[in-house]
Tyrosine-type recombinase/integrase (Kaistia terrae), 393 residues
Amino acid sequence: MPRGLNKLTAISVRTAAPGKYSDGGGLWLYKRPDGGGQWFLRFTIHGRRREMGLGSTSDVSLKNARVAADAARSIAKANKDPIKERDRQSREAARSIHVLKDIALDAFESRKAELKGDGKAGRWFTPLELHVLPKLGNMPVAEIDQKDIRDTLAPIWHTKADTARKAMNRLGLCLKHAAALGLTVDLQATDKARALLGKTRHKSKNIPALPWIEVPAFYASLDAGSVTHLALRLLILTGARSGPLRFLQEAQLDGDVWTIPGEAMKGRRDRTPDFRIPLSVEAMAVIEQARRHARDGYIFPSVRKGVISDATMARHMEREGMQARPHGFRSSLRDWLAETTDAPHEVAETILGHTVGGAVERAYRRTDFLEQRRILLERWGQHVTIGVDCSCK
């Protein structure tokens, strides 16, 4: 045994009075007045004297303190800082135990600014929350492989294909997020899982739509003047989605223009400009009639509280024995534009609130074709009101 080492004994460590005691080789014991003690190692690295804590005497025995001191001295002899090396190992250990649910929540938090309404509706996170995290949430992200993903999504791969696709995509983004944090993950795991799962047998179906030539007859049947009837009429006339329409507020109306806030548009973000919809003469008449039902600033309130639901409009169409659904009227309008007008593609798509062209093209195109859309929607209004008794308005 080299001279000057192992000066302390287990008994002296336990019975020593308050103070500092050397065990040799830079290992020291600091005994506190309360009887507790701490181990620390003094060493010099790059000409700088440093002290490294090795734990308390209640957790680390004299023998283990010497082992830790030997390991640290070996690192210092290799011209590395034992403290920085320990911190590096701690970070690597922490990275290796990150579980998927923590990564998923962090990924969701970082993407909120890109999501409609900061993702409060839950549509981004829900596929993960319902179909991935219950099985893989507590698993270290570094251990997740294609077989784990396959086994997790196999139950819904063919029966709920769209949900499974979203869950797979979200999981892929979580793995990329983990990699960006410096974690070791298999970024190809989701692609490999898709290969294992195979092509889905599920065939997506379009929302049933009423042929545009049949829209006037249905429009004429909406003659009760109720909130549901009036909401469906305005939905047909404007080509808007039901969400913005159901939450239509008086403050959004300025003359014959309805302005939908950008954050209320599907797939849009807070930085997206507001979307203007020109209102036809018929649309203005419907809104004027609906104002009689307005409550708390909303044009289409529900019977109890809040606004009319999308299901309310859909149920009305079900009771009429129709396969078509409210959202399908957007397709009716789009087909009418294609078959009966010479509307340019970008104007027709803008009527439906679709994004047209690439980012560069949109940057240089500053118009929203408001006047062209006004003319077309006026013609559409005339089409759908064929045979409508004016006394019903």
User: Anything to note?
Assistant: The first strand starts at residue 19 and ends at 24. Residues 194 and 286 are 49 Å apart (CA to CA). The chain has three domains: 10-92, 100-197, 212-392. The mean pLDDT is 88.
